[in-house]
């Protein structure tokens, strides 16, 4: 046990007197101590692990004002309201505040009467705010949802790049970056852009109380209704939909079936959204049907299920959203109902967006990885943990794949042929081919690109005709999910082998993929 100092003693007293906790949750104490020692911190904590306390508690025991950067105004308001109920001098600055509100808050800051200030990253583009910070005694900077700084991250926001300047402008002020969902690439980006030689604390994402189920969509609304009535009648849950119109349609359908159902999406008025959120937080049987605009920062421990009626945009989004179920540690369920058309719909949205091409490329690949996960026949928990760098040996024994696997086909040969073609095509041309071009070689499709680079001379030319295009697409998504192929985004999502590729090329262990995700086992007739 480390020797208790006056500071750590004050922390424990504050933990109890302000936050009402007798002890820390896992990881919190080490993170707080690192901040109090003046170190930068990267905290990778799952939803419900108590991220806010990691910067709120040191903010209260340190001299000065902590500045917390949040991506959403609603998050700022919720956090400030909760702190004020604990008699903490907290405030926020946002674009939707009246001028007199902003002025009075600024005066409180100047008078050193604010302990925790919440702002959005965009606020740093305001010169007067930057001067206000320079004239203030800042105790620490906290970057919530820090994955937004990474261009590989699932919710990349360019304004988060403004935070990188704080390293130079306030070199002696400790910084903490927090997120629930960051893979290795995003974590590295966070450290490089926001922090200096940080203490990194990464908790396991494993949620043993959360059962994961993935089903094929046949009669979507009826399947959802049966899931709720048969397994979670009278319990609270979140249903995510792909659009505002579907949120309203599904909400009306469930309400007509006697479910206490609420609706939430960005198209509703502020008053309507606040009413739905308030009722959801306080009614034990409330089910809220929402777009992904809902959920971030929602503090409701007894959510018994999170249901997706469509394929999420990425594994990171999915893990963040299902993490809102069972935060009290009691049994909960994540239910996903999808079809192959979901990915097509999402990719169409991506293509029609005004995002830059490189970001569209990343988004499309993340959608492919998500579809590969949904189609997989392996343990759901192990797939998710492996995606975030955690290796497990035993299956969870409670997901849909562990309990009753659907029909599958042996993709072992197709996997080897696909990887061999990726390698041999690059060896010949020094070009990174995308999945469609690799499949063209495997099927022997003669195109101008093929003839230009003499790919018809490859030993893998036309060796995959026994597999349909949909099967080979499923193989590609599986290899993405397992990180057995990497993607060169600057070359239209060209593929290359990784350090995990050899395991699949040399392994004698079979690879099974879902027949539903791979279509019929028929070769294309060209």
From TrEMBL:
GO terms for biological process: DNA recombination; DNA repair; DNA replication. GO terms for molecular function: 3'-5' DNA helicase activity; ATP binding; DNA binding; four-way junction helicase activity; hydrolase activity; metal ion binding. Residues 220-370 form the Helicase C-terminal domain. CDD domains: DEXHc_RecQ. It is an enzyme of class 5 (isomerase). Its EC number is 5.6.2.4. One of its GO terms (cellular component) is bacterial nucleoid. Residues 32-200 form the Helicase ATP-binding domain. InterPro entries: DEAD/DEAH_box_helicase_dom, DNA_helicase_ATP-dep_RecQ, Helicase_ATP-bd, Helicase_C-like, P-loop_NTPase, RecQ_Zn-bd, RQC_domain, WH-like_DNA-bd_sf. PROSITE patterns: HELICASE_ATP_BIND_1, HELICASE_CTER. It catalyses: Couples ATP hydrolysis with the unwinding of duplex DNA by translocating in the 3'-5' direction. SMART domains: DEXDc (SM00487), HELICc (SM00490), RQC (SM00956). Keywords: ATP-binding, DNA-binding, Helicase, Hydrolase, Isomerase, Metal-binding, Nucleotide-binding. Belongs to the helicase family. RecQ subfamily. NCBIfam families: recQ_fam. This is ATP-dependent DNA helicase RecQ.
